[in-house]
Specification:
Blueprint lengths: L1 E6 L3 H10 L7 E7 L2 H10 L4 E5 L7 H11 L4 E6 L4 H9 L4 E4 L8 H14 L15 E7 L8 H8 L5 E4 L2 E4 L5 H14 L5 E7 L6 H14 L1 H4 L6 E5 H6 L6 H12 L2 H4 L1 H14 L3 H19 L16 H19 L6 H16 L7 H7 L4 H12 L3 H19 L4 H7 L5 H12 L3 H12 L1
Parallel strand pairs: 1-2, 1-3, 3-4, 4-5, 9-10
Antiparallel strand pairs: 6-8, 6-9, 7-8
Length: 466
């Protein structure tokens, strides 16, 4: 727990703050109070205090002098100023002396107590710990890292563990804790209890870190933050016990990727082989993991693949594939890919057709999308997928749900709608881009499908968007 002391010469203010603030919610408890700076120093000498809330204008010893003395004698204590709004010059002096925040008494209302305390807690977590020198070099080679895949929302349980132990843990970043400690038997028991607790806290991992000798704390913290941002996403494995990582290994991870490799990856995932062949599927996943794309780039790649998969598989009965808002780790990506693959395989199974026939029809569907601007006929397409025209037409209708001519027309009309809504291209250009050399014939076909001419369709939807 974070141990708190309240210092104010007004007894009602002290009692009020102690009773109404939601201390426990932020892992805090009030362990003492004082009516002036001198009594506060006496309390600090005999009690453990992590956070001191102090008034500035007090008899015997002012809050400014208290902060100055505490900074020298108790450098580990964080200070927050309690003040009236007119004490601006005093506030500046207190902040210059190291206070991390201030609370204006006149602005304290019941509905903002939690907000104020949360702000103070976050400031404490953002400040470097004051009981170590970040510029000192580390004198042992091994340490531990406790980190979570959750990088944004701070979890408070580990702070309680820190307060209960004699191990000096440093929070290098949100939910990223680091410490160096000889692995004695008592510490081993503490680690075992920590691992047991982690079993109830999903997303956390404990790693034994080596290669620390002679490194500076701040440099290690920076490299750990980089590792968590770039590589931990791919390395995290749930319920894996204590992992191991050398600082040199953390530095050696390099994302080997190029525009050509990205294009090749998209091409591999755009084909159908990974759906039917387990080996190909796992090879594609392994290649994707090895690229160690930043999470934003990985999501962008998956979005582009989903667009292609939906075009390809929706016509044969697969529900629209959607991407989660985010992925916690590569394990999450891996599980999602397996689920999507199983969904597609289940949906495209046709008991009356062989796998080869279904693959041929899927290939025909893909050609219809990729080459819609060209003159495509069922006869030509049947030859390209090595089927007779009559059998191709029969299979296409039963698997895709419509004959090939109707399907191709629908694909072209949907693409034409997209051009009309999101580009300023002329109707003639759009007609040619979706496979119609004759603009009038295109417009007539478009009206048959939508009930209006292309120009009218564009005007109507433009007004709706405005």
């Amino acid at each position: 727990m974070i141990k708190v002391m309240v210092v104010d010469d007004d007894n009602l203010v002290r009692k009020g703050l102690i009773s109404v603030m939601p201390w426990k919610k932020f892992g805090m408890e009030v362990v003492g109070e004082a009516s002036n700076g001198l009594k506060a120093l006496e309390f600090l000498e005999s009690h453990n205090v992590d956070l001191m809330l102090t008034d500035l204008a007090m008899p015997v010893m002012s809050g400014v002098e208290l902060i100055r003395r505490a900074r020298k004698e108790f450098p580990h204590v964080y200070t927050v100023v309690l003040t009236l709004h007119q004490d601006f010059e005093y506030i500046q002096e207190a902040l210059r002396l190291g206070a991390i925040d201030y609370i204006a008494k006149v602005q304290l209302e019941k509905d903002c107590f939690e907000e104020v305390l949360e702000r103070i807690y976050n400031r404490m977590m953002e400040e470097p710990r004051r009981d170590y020198n970040a510029n000192e070099s580390i004198s042992i080679d091994t340490g531990f890292v406790l980190l979570s895949v959750n990088k944004t929302t701070r979890e408070y349980w580990i702070k309680e563990w820190h307060d209960k132990s004699d191990i000096s843990m440093i929070e290098a970043d949100t939910n990223l804790w680091f410490w160096t400690q000889p692995l004695e038997q008592s510490n081993q028991l503490w680690l075992e209890r920590l691992l047991k607790e982690m079993g109830t806290k999903p997303g956390w991992s404990l790693i034994r870190l080596s290669g620390l000798m002679g490194k500076h704390d701040k440099d290690v913290h920076r490299r750990l933050r980089e590792y968590r941002d770039k590589d931990f996403f791919y390395d995290y494995v749930p319920d894996s016990g204590v992992g191991s990582l050398s600082l040199q290994e953390a530095d050696s991870h390099k994302q080997v990727r190029s525009e050509e490799s990205m294009d090749r990856l998209k091409e591999q995932w755009s084909s159908n082989e990974w759906i039917y062949q387990d080996g190909v599927f796992h090879e594609h996943l392994h290649a994707l993991k090895l690229m160690r794309l930043p999470q934003a780039m990985l999501l962008g790649l998956l979005y582009s693949l989903i667009d292609k998969w939906n075009l390809l598989f929706y016509s044969v009965g697969v529900d629209k594939i959607k991407l989660p808002d985010s992925f916690d780790s590569w394990e999450h990506v891996y599980s999602w890919c397996i689920t999507i693959r199983n969904t597609i395989r289940k949906a495209i199974i046709r008991p009356s057709f062989s796998q080869e026939v279904v693959e041929c029809i899927l290939k025909a569907v893909q050609i219809a999308h990729d080459e819609m601007s060209q003159q495509i006929t069922a006869v030509n397409l049947a030859k390209r997928v090595n089927m007779s025209r009559s059998y191709f037409s029969q299979c296409f209708k039963e698997i895709a749900g419509s004959n090939f001519s109707d399907y191709l027309r629908q694909v072209r009309m949907e693409k034409a709608k997209e051009y009309l809504l999101y580009t300023n291209k002329t109707v003639q250009w759009i007609a040619e881009s979706v496979g119609y050399a004759d603009e009038k014939y295109f417009s007539r076909t478009f009206r048959e499908q939508t009930g209006m001419l292309p120009s009218k369709y564009r005007q109507m939807h433009a007004r709706e968007q405005q």
